[in-house]
Amino acid sequence: MSADSTGRLIRASDGVRLHVREVGQGDPMVFVHEFSGDFRSWNQQVAYFGRHAHCVTYSARGYLPSDVPESAADYSQERAAEDLADVIRALGLGPAHVVGLSMGGFAALHFGLRYPQLAKSLVVAGCGYGAKPEEQPEYGNRMRAEADHVEKSGMAAFAAELAGSAYAMPLRAKDPQGWATFAAQLAEHSVRGAAMTLRSVLGTRPSLWHLEERLRRLQVPVLLLVGDEDDPCLEPNIYLKRTIPGAALCVLPRAGHLANLEDPAVFNETIRNFVNAVDSGRWHGWTGSNLVT
After folding, report:
1. Do 78 and 86 contact (CB within 8 A), yes or no?
2. What pLDDT, on the 0 to 100 scale, is given for residue 288?
């Protein structure tokens, strides 16, 4: 890992060590990265929010410098939610504002369902890949095939493929230097960790539609963020907006999946307005459907 890998290790409740970085003082904000990222993916958010908040980033299990367990049983969607809760408890934080992107967005949402008392708010960004019930079998097969591929090709080749695919093209078009940093950091990931995450987290997580009853009971303020070019996530986010009480949906224009890297200024400002509304008690109590005209 590069020289910016500062921080400390905390132990999750099953003993796996997670690398955590803390910056700033104030109300806690915890950032949860996506599959192709790690704790460094949030550098532009930490630089922005760290002036006024206690920002926490961490690398998920399987992502260096966190531990990379060898057993598939050590990886799951449920475990990802538990790890987020373990980070907050280990640091003596909570309730915290939690911001998750893609894989991290799923983790944030499952965390909110399991531990609403630890969440002051949830930002769920880029959540939805493979989330529809009819998509799950094919998506699971695709993730397992990707896991086999990364093990066969190695991390450098896999990273070059992913960074060169449509997945990262909006970032490359908007910020070539940022894209180069993204690709270089992705190439540093663990082959075992990437493969285990693909098979046992992404490939086995439940459909969002199967969580409907629990989502309807969720009382934590939720901001849903999605790029309008992120087609697989658009319909799931509309579903989440219609299902979660107190949720709002923000669609970012001309944005793809890596919105926090592609458009950090818009991404940060949108979250700042949401957090300010929650902190001032102005989030709940009204929606467009109950306004009198």
Report:
1. no
2. 54
